[in-house]
Design brief:
Radius of gyration of chain B: 26 Å
Strand order of the largest sheet of chain B: 5-6-7-10-9-8
Low-confidence stretches of chain A: 1-16
Low-confidence stretches of chain B: 1-27, 338-345, 428-471
Largest interface: A-B, 80 and 72 residues
Structural class of chain A: alpha+beta
Distance between the termini of chain A: 39 Å
Shape of chain B: globular
Helix content of chain A: 10-25%
Number of strands of chain B: 24
Distance between the termini of chain B: 69 Å
Number of helices of chain B: 10
Radius of gyration of chain A: 25 Å
Oligomer: heterodimer
Number of helices of chain A: 5
């Protein structure tokens, strides 16, 4: 069996620090959300590939990722965590945003989840993730994962709830237990970059998908988000972009630059063995480094040149 | 000197240094994922290129220098995983071309500011691990940090992850005693291959043993892992209830079960020729008991079966037409190697997986991004209770822990074995078996063991049922 996962990847800083008491409240909420929604978190398979899905109505409408419906099998069924396996048929999909729908065709009343919205979410919010990583595993309830909202993109949210092949199409919940997004893709580089298609985006394509329409194509997966969300290195200085050399206009309080005695007005002549001729060039040089890297920087003050050892700091995202 | 950073294939990054530059800095050292990449492409290279990569592996460096001609041969080789080398004109660059291969290692990753693993969030949790820290040791083997260990009695005994002990003769435990670092040599007393636990003994320090919490933690509970100083290393939540993850020679009943509304497990399907069929079970039957263990859910049934050895005789109580019946069956066997590993890359993306990462008799899963060397230490909840011991990182989404009650039983068993081995004959036997162990594994326990079923008591779900006798 092929286990599906579409490899893709999303930045902004600072979430409020949680106290231990707040964490206890969050823990209670995570447990409730998981217990309430586990039964509706299903495996969607076409007989060839296997992804996840979530039931959103008592008559068995299932949301999944668009790419889960592209493996070419035609023996569709939905498997519940309690072992029930039922027949299903694919409805429509919008591959532009990686959204898809499946309908359970057997009669019955099915466990289902409540729909929410990404609009009210804030960066740093805790989220709960369910799904069937690695495909259906007899006797295993959907493993519970928790993480934070790392970034907000037009059609997706990015969290550090770890996903892997087989999770695609599975549900992401807010702490009230409402479905807010569907798992889509990950970055291979980083466990902190997991992408989920917003439920609001599903709503916009809802009627067309329900009517069985297929459209769009899966976007090329890029590492742009990896790059944008990568922790960058810096020294805590601001450069005067108008001067020809790399002259420092500001030094951040408490930064490594300040600790090493660098002052506004100093000019950086050399960075890690390379002569610095412009502010832009220095910025590019720093970009090639990681936080924690040690570099020797040659600083000029008046007629005096001095070598300074700098351990680069993390400056975001 | 020009330095560019490329990233391809969603997961490979390459740093290119063109031109001559005299830098052999520490950052150019070969990390694990890059070593794996080198080893993977080696077979496809011509002898000259192969020699260059092998020399890089031998000297543990991540860069390779090519002449323009060699560079072109490497670029055109189908094994070259980088498609961005086209931007380099080898004949325009002066002299040799130096490529630094740098597959990002999870070990070097810096958490994003908003991520739950960021130090800002973790430091809040340090207060919850303070009580446990004196029970934690950092285990070094041949000078390398390989695992954590958890103190289980005051007289110098600790448990750790056995398969990480690469040299049984050179094990050191690092403690933090009132802020001071104490390194003590440790002796490997006994090994429980099934659980991958080793009992270590140190002298000269009174340890503070942990008190294991015996109940099964509900999924969603926050869990942390700390080092010997009480610094929180990672945060996660419990993902699943304890499950039996043995896979080699797994006992197999041959049924498709679903949870029944009235409790127990209904059989949707019975595999023709399987153990269930030969015992006379039919589709529609509802299993309520297996040996002395009540069956409420599919999870109960799967665990109950897999904890037996294939060939074991079991007694099943089931309901048919409103009537309670009993059947006896002899369990079949199957290996699930292939089925459980849908491609390593799929599982590990962004993680470094433990050498021994599955085939455990009873473990629960959590989503803390452990590094292999974090295993062997206690897994702690927000109240500082020790829920169990981390035993493996098994993939991007999963780390595995052995529950407290299970660890206690395993430790008891190891201690009893150790007492039994005190008579001279047993001692001699033990000495020879450890020699054999060393000879077989090149001095360590790494990558050698599969779960075995000792003829001993193994508990089912801790806290819910009495331990059963293994057949």
């Amino acid at each position: 069996m092929v286990v599906l996962c579409w490899y893709v990847l999303g930045g902004i800083p600072l979430g409020a620090q949680q106290s231990l008491e707040e964490l206890r409240g969050i823990e209670a909420a995570i447990q409730q959300v998981a217990a309430k929604n586990s039964a509706a978190t299903v495996v969607v398979s076409d007989g060839r590939g296997s992804g996840s899905g979530v039931v959103v109505s008592d008559d068995g409408l299932v949301l999944t990722a668009g790419h889960v419906l592209t493996t070419g099998g035609n023996d569709f069924h939905v498997t519940f965590p309690d072992g029930r396996r039922v027949k299903a048929r694919p409805l429509g999909k919008n591959l532009d945003v990686d959204a898809g729908m499946v309908k359970i065709t057997e009669p019955g009343t099915w466990p289902h989840v409540e729909l929410g919205s990404c609009d009210a979410l804030e960066l740093g919010d805790w989220m709960v993730c369910l799904g069937h990583p690695g495909g259906y595993d007899l006797g295993r309830d959907p493993p519970v994962r928790a993480g934070k909202l790392i970034a907000d993109r037009p059609t997706q949210v990015i969290t550090d709830c770890a996903l892997i092949g087989g999770d695609s199409g599975g549900p992401l919940f807010d702490l009230q237990g409402r479905l807010v997004a569907i798992h889509s893709s990950i970055s291979y580089d980083s466990i902190a970059i997991n992408r989920h298609v917003k439920i609001d985006v599903f709503r916009r394509s809802w009627d067309r998908m329900l009517a069985g329409e297929h459209w769009g194509r899966l976007p090329e997966l890029t590492n742009d988000d990896d790059e944008a969300l990568r922790a960058r290195a810096g020294m805590g200085i601001t450069l005067d972009m108008s001067s020809p050399g790399a002259t420092i206009s500001r030094v951040k309080a408490g930064s490594v630059a300040e600790t090493q005695g660098i002052q506004p007005g100093d000019r950086i002549c050399e960075f890690d063995g390379t002569e610095v001729t412009s502010p832009d060039q220095l910025i590019e040089l720093v970009k090639t480094k990681d936080p924690g890297d040690q570099v020797i920087v040659v600083v000029e003050r008046g007629a005096v040149r001095k070598e300074v050892l700098i351990t680069l700091e993390q400056i975001g995202p | 000197m020009r330095r560019l950073r490329f990233a391809w294939s969603g997961w490979l990054a390459l740093v290119l240094t063109a031109g001559l530059g005299g830098w052999d800095r520490a950052a150019a050292q070969l990390n694990e994922p890059t070593l794996e990449l080198f080893q993977r492409i080696l077979p496809s290279l011509d002898d000259e290129l192969k020699g260059k990569f092998e020399a890089a592996i031998d000297s543990e460096r991540s860069w390779i220098e090519f002449s323009p001609d060699e560079f072109l041969r490497f670029r055109e080789n189908p094994a070259n995983p980088f498609d961005g080398l086209d931007s380099i004109d080898p004949h325009k660059e002066p002299g040799k071309i130096r490529l630094e291969f740098k597959v990002p290692s999870p070990r070097e990753r810096v958490p994003i500011t908003r991520e739950r693993q960021h130090r800002t969030y973790l430091q809040v949790l340090d207060s919850t691990t303070l009580g446990v820290a004196p029970s934690v040791a950092r285990v070094y083997c041949s000078g390398k940090w390989v695992a954590l260990a958890t103190a289980v009695n005051a007289h110098g005994l600790l448990v750790t992850k056995a398969s990480e002990l690469c040299d049984l003769a050179d094990v050191t435990c690092r403690f933090s005693v009132e802020g001071e670092t104490r390194d003590l040599p440790a002796v490997v007393w006994r090994v429980d291959e099934s659980n991958d636990l080793a009992l270590l003994k140190v002298e000269g320090l009174t340890l503070q043993p942990v008190t294991f919490y015996r109940e099964v933690p509900e999924p969603g509970r926050f869990v942390t892992t700390c080092d010997e100083t009480g610094t929180t290393l990672v945060l996660g939540v419990v993902s699943t209830r304890p499950r039996c993850l043995t896979r080699v020679n797994q006992a197999y009943l041959g049924v498709r079960p679903v949870n029944a509304a009235e409790g127990g497990v209904e059989l949707v399907d019975v595999t023709p020729g399987g153990a269930a069929e030969s015992a006379g079970l039919l589709a529609g039957d509802r299993i309520v008991r297996l040996d002395e263990r009540a069956i409420q859910t599919v999870t109960d049934l799967v665990n109950a079966i897999r904890l037996h050895r294939p060939g074991a005789s079991i007694t099943i109580d089931f309901m048919r037409d409103g009537e309670r019946r009993q059947a006896t069956s002899s369990l079949a066997a199957r290996n699930v190697d292939a089925a459980r590993e849908p491609g390593k890359q799929e599982i590990v993306a962004g993680a470094i997986v433990s050498a021994r990462h599955d085939d455990f008799p009873l473990v629960f899963q959590h989503d803390s991004p452990l590094l292999p060397e974090y295993c062997g230490g206690p897994l702690v909840d927000l109240d500082g209770r020790v829920l169990g011991i981390n035993i493996a990182r098994s993939g991007r989404v999963a780390s595995l822990a052995i529950g407290g009650a299970q660890v206690e039983l395993a430790v008891d068993r190891l201690l009893r074995e150790n007492v039994a081995s005190r008579d001279p004959e047993a001692r001699a036997l033990r000495a020879s078996s450890s020699c054999e162990l060393s000879a077989r594994t090149g001095g360590g326990l790494r990558r050698t063991h599969r779960a075995r079923f000792p003829g001993e008591k193994i508990p089912m779900i801790p806290g819910r049922d009495l331990p059963i006798r293994m057949p």
